[in-house]
Amino acid sequence: MYERIKGFRDFYPAEMQARRQVFDEVESTVRGYGFREIGTPAMEDAQLYIDKSGEEIVDELYSFEDKGGRHVALTPELTPTVARMVVAKQQELSKPIKWFSTRPFWRYEEPQQGRFREFYQTNVDIFGSSDPSADAEILAVAADMLTNLGLDAEDFEFRVSHRDILGGLLDAFGGDIATQQAIRAVDKSAKIETAEYHDLLVDAGLDYEQARTFDELLAVDEDELDELVEFAGTDRIHEAVTNLQNVLAAAEDFGVREFCDLSLETARGLDYYTGVVFECFDSTGEVSRAVFGGGRYDDLIESFGGQPTPAVGFAPGDATLSLLLQRAGVWPDEELSTDYYVLQVGDTRPVAARIARDLREGGHVVETDVSDRSFGAQMNYADSINAETVVIVGERDLENDEVTLKDMASGDQVQAPVGEFPGEHDRPTIEQFE
Amino acid sequence: MYERIKGFRDFYPAEMQARRQVFDEVESTVRGYGFREIGTPAMEDAQLYIDKSGEEIVDELYSFEDKGGRHVALTPELTPTVARMVVAKQQELSKPIKWFSTRPFWRYEEPQQGRFREFYQTNVDIFGSSDPSADAEILAVAADMLTNLGLDAEDFEFRVSHRDILGGLLDAFGGDIATQQAIRAVDKSAKIETAEYHDLLVDAGLDYEQARTFDELLAVDEDELDELVEFAGTDRIHEAVTNLQNVLAAAEDFGVREFCDLSLETARGLDYYTGVVFECFDSTGEVSRAVFGGGRYDDLIESFGGQPTPAVGFAPGDATLSLLLQRAGVWPDEELSTDYYVLQVGDTRPVAARIARDLREGGHVVETDVSDRSFGAQMNYADSINAETVVIVGERDLENDEVTLKDMASGDQVQAPVGEFPGEHDRPTIEQFE
């Protein structure tokens, strides 16, 4: 027997049906905002990630040499691919470019709860607008997605931060500070002890007192943001704080302000973010890691050889999202559903097939016997697929030009004239033939 | 600048929208028959293919050693994976098992028209029924899929053959014949010269006279099938011919007989087929290769260590299917569609956002300004995304508690009371406010 590879998953129909419902709801929300679906390859030149992704991602890359001697990698994230696609057609694409896609990605990580080597993400991005409305639209579509899935403000929160506030504060300390390294320390701060966190900041070039001050500054409330401007006294911090405030004001207009909390300690792991960043958390804390995140990355397209093009996006992943939905009790039922089973008794296939066909044309899910089985075996099968109604096409009934409808929930049965079934009924049930 | 890898494709929104419409129609047809979606990994133990797939597929495998020293391969086809999944849960799955999925596969082939290194397939399979109705249901769902996509009997044909008729005839010649090798020769026969075809049959163990006889036998019409039984005089051929006739009779009951032509010269390339096989062809011949194919493979599950489990399925691929749909003029328009663009003039974002939100709740695709742009720039953008209706939210209109609706096709405009827009209208248009 062959084994599935560690960290990869098989999805059988009942679970897949629940997943499909969730993916559909996510995509329908995103489409409502005018994001357009794109299709992207599973493989890219490995150099793309070596040059552009953080070290952590490169360490986890599934990369190899293909039969043509190319050094290729399975895509560990979508952003470098969409950046490549934007650059390739930059002139002809009208701005803002609003794209999404749902697909698998691959990272060689240690599998654990909510983390797999093959995982699915819906990537949602806006290219070509630096306006705070674009950041807020990303927050809005992310929040709508979650509320459409059945969550409310008690269930989740967006911890909103700003890379340029972090960078600007670090800058204000003067001296030779490795900004990205310090920001990565901030990203880890919630998961490690304060002393270790301060050590990491010191490794990045702060001294211990500066590390403590920095830590305190990041704890400010929303109405104390001016203290940061005062502390640093730079245009950069002033602009970054104003930008953050404008994004939150736009989120207010978009009706999703209630889901957003200021949290400068939130930094996001990836190096390419430049402005507002956010992470979605389970408000109850039961799902302990970030459910997903996103933010602004204005320099990436240019670094790919394109015209300077501001960008902002987010990307919910399947594994953590399902943990949150399960925790909140809104994960869809993992149960098959079937509208009709057309049961054949004796040599009635032509009539049964005609009825199945007519019901399918009405948009229903309809199964019929393809195994030449007994009445009892067919009934058991109809039960196993949760058929709502069984249409029994029997030789004797047909002599009277009738079929029998059986409601599987109540067990009630009625006869219906075969020539009038399903007839003009959108969804024929036993009530309509009583 | 980074290049896309050869044989891989990027799909931009307009093309992707057409592809999505086609995938949705395919999946909706398949779901109507009660096939259930499954989700499957992109990677398997490479040994699975080395043991189970034909030589050709193994030569084209994207395989490599992962960071844990596993010899893995990107899935070049789905059948081995679903076989593994059936075996893993054989006891608990109720039969027949009817599964489908749409996803990419990877083969290192030379790219050409209708062939890519990354391609998409919808795999549709029934496990657990050896009844001719199951084969016919596969033919029926395949035909319905194509007619639902807008094709008719003038556009396509299913060339139906039977592996056991081919095998049984070869057997009847006696001697030491390599059956799979001879069947692979039949599979190639349409693409090569007769002399070369006969040479291949001779390589497989026939003599030249037998090769000619075999060739003639395969050319029989449907009403001459008894001649094959007579020629061979074996139970095996008798049963195979009867099985084929029963499948065609069931296809008649299922309403798809008109799409099926007997064509014993059709063999399918893969080794694992055992019974009825078929290939879909463009009736005009403009698309010269098979569009897709399928058939019965009763021995595969057992060869994976499972209980003997009959199986039959088919798998349309995106590239050839789109060639056929384009040839027939039924490929969907590659054009974006947008229901509403909510245009902001002046500081009207709160009202514009409220209107956009209400329209989205009605299930519409709605964009609004996220770039702080001028009236003209917003109008151009609304035009570029084919917005049907533009809702102009202007400061002056709002002073009169009004918004302006503009029908983009006619250019007509009306005013609507802001408090009543969109109101209870399912799909508010300018007519409703005139």
From TrEMBL, chains A, B:
CDD domains: HisRS-like_core, HisRS_anticodon. It catalyses: tRNA(His) + L-histidine + ATP = L-histidyl-tRNA(His) + AMP + diphosphate + H(+). It is found in: Cytoplasm. Transmembrane segments: none annotated. GO terms for biological process: histidyl-tRNA aminoacylation. L-histidine binds at residues 77-79, 107, 121, 125, 268, 272-273. It comes from the Archaea. It holds the Pfam family HGTP_anticodon. Keywords: Aminoacyl-tRNA synthetase, ATP-binding, Cytoplasm, Ligase, Nucleotide-binding, Protein biosynthesis. Residues 409-434 are annotated as: Disordered. This is Histidine--tRNA ligase. The gene is hisS.
